Amino acid sequence: MEEAVRDGVAERRERLMEALRVYGGHYAELSRRFAAWLGLHSTDATAVLEIAAAEERGTPLSPARLSERIPLSTGATTALLNRLEAAGHITRAREHSDRRIVTLRSGSHIQERADEFFGPLAHRLDATMSPYPPGVLEQFEVFMADLNTAMDSHLAERDPVARRSPRAPDGQAR
């Protein structure tokens, strides 16, 4: 550890952690602005995005999986889904051979609105990452996966009912 301090590694780690905190703040603000732009409560907008993103990955969510991803009780999730369905933002379907399983789908306008809102940022972020070689991006993926695992472990140790991180780096639910 003394060597790390001597080489400036400790300071670099501190700067990196601060940059991650700033990024987290930006992400939270972007989420808040998206919700306001849609005219939704932030939790409702988060749910809509989770449902749409899961569909895009080809792994649509059930109400139970959604409640894990946006830490809500089953009752609160049901109320949220009722609001979103009444507004036409989502549908609930029984697509599985086990008809008890409900699949959540976003309304067709949701993906269009999300693309309209997030599209310019997606292009900007892609352009920002494009100069980095694949090997560097791969290292960063591993680094982020390791940080998320450390956070998951810490949260689980601090709160026995804490939910795990909603997203792994590959976008899959944990």
Verbal overview:
The structure is a single chain. It contains seven helices and two strands. The chain is mainly α and 174 residues long. It has two domains: 130 residues, Winged helix-like DNA-binding domain superfamily/Winged helix DNA-binding domain (Arc Repressor Mutant, subunit A, Orthogonal Bundle); 41 residues. Helix 3 packs across helix 5. The longest helix has 30 residues. It is globular and about 60 Å long.
List keywords for this structure.
Arc Repressor Mutant, subunit A; single chain; two-stranded antiparallel ribbon; 7 helices; mainly alpha; 174 residues
SSE blueprint:
Layout lengths: L1 H5 L2 H30 L3 H16 L5 H7 L4 H13 L3 E4 L9 E4 L1 H22 L4 H25 L16
Antiparallel strand pairs: 1-2
Low-pLDDT parts are none
Predict the CATH topology of the largest domain. Arc Repressor Mutant, subunit A
Q: Report the CATH C-level class of the largest domain.
A: Mainly Alpha
Class from secondary-structure proportions: mainly alpha
The number of helical elements comes to: 7
Helix content: 55-70%
Any idea what the CATH superfamily of the largest domain is called? Winged helix-like DNA-binding domain superfamily/Winged helix DNA-binding domain
Summary of the model, kept short:
The protein is mainly alpha-helical.
